[in-house]
Amino acid sequence: MKNITDSFVSLGHWPSAGSLGFNTDILATNLINLSVVLGVLIYFGKGVLNDLLDNRKQRILSTIRNSEELRRGAVEQLERARARLRKVEMEADEYRRNGYSEIEREKVNLINATSDSLERLENYKNETLHFEQQRTINQVRQRVFQQALQGALGTLNSCLNNELHFRTISANIGILRAMEEITD
């Protein structure tokens, strides 16, 4: 402390002219310089500092207001999106229910159509089998009849001579004439 007071005292005793000297007491000169600079800064910088702080305060308040407005807008959008989501979920559930019932209906229709097709195919198969059986039976009958006829002709040809053959033909012609007279 003594050094500080000595510095102030020595300021008052400076020689008025002639010699200019340096104060080599760094601690004393730094404190004086620092107090002078702080005094000037406080006196002249008070308004600037207040303006800077007020501007900063206004920007912060403006940012907070903008953030609040954005938050409110975001909350409103979120509520609208949630309402839309609920609506879409309800529609999806309805489509799902309708889809399942439609699928069941289509499944039943497909099963019925397949059953009808199988029944028609079964009937067609049975008709085809019956037709083929009848055709085969008719072919067998024709062969048996042809073989019997050939056997009978063979027997007749071996047993008949010309005269017997002529009398048989004449008798058959007579029978045919009698039948013709009866129908007239």
TrEMBL record:
One of its GO terms (biological process) is proton motive force-driven ATP synthesis. This is ATP synthase CF0 subunit I. It comes from Xerophyta retinervis. One of its GO terms (molecular function) is proton transmembrane transporter activity. Keywords: ATP synthesis, CF(0), Chloroplast, Coiled coil, Hydrogen ion transport, Ion transport, Membrane, Plastid, Thylakoid, Transmembrane, Transmembrane helix, Transport. F(1)F(0) ATP synthase produces ATP from ADP in the presence of a proton or sodium gradient. F-type ATPases consist of two structural domains, F(1) containing the extramembraneous catalytic core and F(0) containing the membrane proton channel, linked together by a central stalk and a peripheral stalk. During catalysis, ATP synthesis in the catalytic domain of F(1) is coupled via a rotary mechanism of the central stalk subunits to proton translocation. Residues 64-98 form a coiled coil. GO terms for cellular component: proton-transporting ATP synthase complex. It is a single-pass membrane protein. The lineage of its organism: Eukaryota, Viridiplantae, Streptophyta, Embryophyta, Tracheophyta. It holds the Pfam family ATP-synt_B. It is found in: Membrane. The chain crosses the membrane at residues 26-49. Belongs to the ATPase B chain family. Its main location: membrane.
